[in-house]
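agent: user wants the full assembly modeled, not chains individually. Plan: 1) parse entity lines 2) check alphabet per entity 3) run joint structure prediction 4) return tokens. Steps 1-2 passed, two entities, 469 residues total. Proceeding.
--- entities ---
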Amino acid sequence: MSGVRVLVGTRKGAFILTADGKRDSWQVSGPHFGGWEVYHVKGSPADPNRLYASQSTGWHGQVIQRSDDGGATWNPVGNKFGYATEPGEHLWYDGTPRPWQFTRVWHLEPTADDPDTVYAGAEDAALFRTTDGGQEWQELTALREHPTGPKWQPGAGGMCLHTILLDPVVKGRMFAAISAAGAFRSDDAGASWQPINRGLKSEGIPDPEAEVGHCVHRIAQHPSRPDTLFMQKHWDVMRSDDAGGSWREVSGNLPTDFGFPIDVHAHEPETIYVVPIESDLFHVPPEGRLRVYRSRTGGDDWEPLTEGLPQRDCYVNVLRDAMAVDSLDDCGVYFGTTGGQVYASADSGDSWAPIVRDLPAVLSVEVQTLP
Amino acid sequence: MIRVVLPGHLRTLASVDGEVLLDVPGAVTQRTVLDALEDRYPMLCGTIRDHDTHKRRAFVRFYACQEDLSNEPPDAPLPERVASGDEPYLVVGSMAGG
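--- prediction returned ---
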């Protein structure tokens, strides 16, 4: 029987949650790398037993861990993330120039066909790649060296490259998103990049047509519709049907369009999920009710999903990388909270149940569908 | 042999229990001790000092013989009792809190 493996990164280590295809009985392993912040754990599509984890602390910096047995054992691999050219300066919060400085890896994106090739998104924003299973990391400099780079500023969490989408259909096309620079597309495997922020409107940016400076929180794509992208921006849920060439708002009837994660149903490319958060001041669900919102129409028309989720006195957040879907016949949806809960739905979001309730604050959730 | 005590997180990362014993040929300085440590445990590279500049990470401190050596020159000789193995060289994750 097929099963799932949920990979959870938290403020104090990584956890691996496994279940069979029914997804009603779970085994929990961890903490792996206890005491370290684990921003992301992700498995290789080409070899589900190959996992990569990004662990870091303020004391000891960045470590990358690799497992070749589905997370049973781990080994540290290369952790040298050096900017390949003179890093230059970007804008600090106060508008003054500040040198680019590597802090940590936010996101790891293994490629579809080679378990040894992985992209890494870093803070301060830069894109790295390994082709030897993590031993050596090389920067793809074109993104950091984009002419708009000196204008980029960090979001509240840092100037992080948090989203990497490797287009499953269009060869060489990839997308990246940076807080708070915006979204970017490469059509030549990262050799060059262009901002794709046309149509984004961000209150507080003096120029409503600004090429960069938008606080993009997350982008999602369905493999069958490579030109369609969904975005949770700081405020606003957005949609593009031309690979980011233009965007339109699809927030529709959401109770608030602030939030962090966004994801797409595995089998229904017009079914998308967000977790509305009251505001950037509060970072909690509106009215203390934790609700996932689902649109079956690619946005605009949203329905709250509440069964099994706390509907009173709930004041947690769901961070940008903390939602994922599996690809079983009845699509499973997963998300983790800053309160340490990881919720799962085995019926496309109709009902939810906690897998675990008391982990450290969850930073990321990924899921592997196992044969 | 030079005795080195690592903080807990780095002992776990390097899969070692207790003190690390290092053979350091030639002059025993902070640089040669850390070079030998990283040579034997390459997963520690970058976790104590910068990969390239070898500058100490901000929240790591070095102690030996009741002295804070964190800001001493890296090529200065370590105390004789460290060189002789009577006292350990301590790599410490700095303590902060509120």
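agent: reporting back. The first helix of chain A runs from residue 141 to 144. The mean pLDDT of chain A is 96.
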